[in-house]
Amino acid sequence: MPGAWTADLSGKNAVVTGASRGIGEACVRALDAAGARVALLARSTEPMKRIAADLQHDAVTITVDLTSSDETERAVDEAIRQLGTIDIVVNNVGIMETSEAPDALTADGLDLQLDLNLRNVMLLTSRFAAALRERRGCVVNMSSVAAQISGANGLVYAATKGGMNSFTRVLATAWAPDGVRVNGIAPGYVETDIWTPVADRLGDDGGANLRKGTSAKIPMQRWGTADEIASVVVFLCSDAASYLTGQTINVDGGVAM
Question: What domains are defined for the chain?
Fold first, then answer.
């Protein structure tokens, strides 16, 4: 895996949400390469099965709509049942909607992003509490530099990621005495299909200009890759990060400096 940093996570069991594509898929593959057994959680069954079939270790796929509290609880129970123990939870699921202007927000748009990006992330993590304490495990929350830098679009998305950063800090404080570490990652512009709807609205020239314009604002002058984010996830889940908790690490080429 080009650009990937790895560690020895042999004997550990991990749960990754939003695991069927993009950063989630990269996290699954990186954790598997490091020796962990992974439960993939997502709405899309077939992509998960394809990924699972390509892994080194026996994986679990759980189809779930994480906007539903009932389905979230069912998925947690199923992951614990199939894996037995839980060492790692990677909260990667999320949705970015940039088409709603700040003066034209809708209740449905708010509910979808708040439920998927924050509310049920908190519920899912809470339901894994006992399992994580038993194993002195760790949580990695996928945030975004959108919570730190201002822009005209993506108001609700940015707000949910700001909430996730607070959730990371408070939960880290609460669970530290139990030996459970909680950290976050804030990616910048990353080559994944979360940008596809934005590029589609802009058209071919607009999509190219988006990439060119944003790259010019990044000190490293390029977008990142999903593998580069996944490498930091593996680091945070490893013994190399054993004294690190409550942090949200920017992996953004310097754009939020």
Answer: 13-188+225-251 (3.40.50.720), 194-223 (no CATH)
189 is catalytic: no
Q: pLDDT, tens digit, for every residue of 107-121?
A: 988 899 999 999 999
pLDDT per residue over 179-190, tens digit each? 999 999 999 999
The answer to whether the beta carbons of residues 121 and 184 sit under 8 Å apart is no
Q: Where are the beta strands (DSSP E) in the chain?
A: 13-17, 37-42, 60-63, 88-91, 138-142, 181-187, 248-251
Q: How many other C-beta atoms are found inside a 10 Å radius of the C-beta of residue 3?
A: 11
102: tokens are: 């700040």
User: Which residues have CB under 8 Å from 86's CB, separation 6+?
Assistant: 13, 14, 15, 79, 80, 128, 131, 132, 135, 137
- Any residues with CB less than 8 A from the CB of 217 and at least 6 apart, and which? 255
3 state SS of 185: strand
Cβ-proximal residues to 215 (8 Å cutoff; 6+ apart), any chain: 189, 221, 222, 223
Q: Are 72 and 128 in contact (CB under 8 A)?
A: no
Catalytic residue (one of 128, 157, 175, 235): 157
Cα–Cα distance, 238 to 36 (Å, whole number): 11
The C-alpha atoms of residue 103 and residue 172 are separated, in whole angstroms, by 35
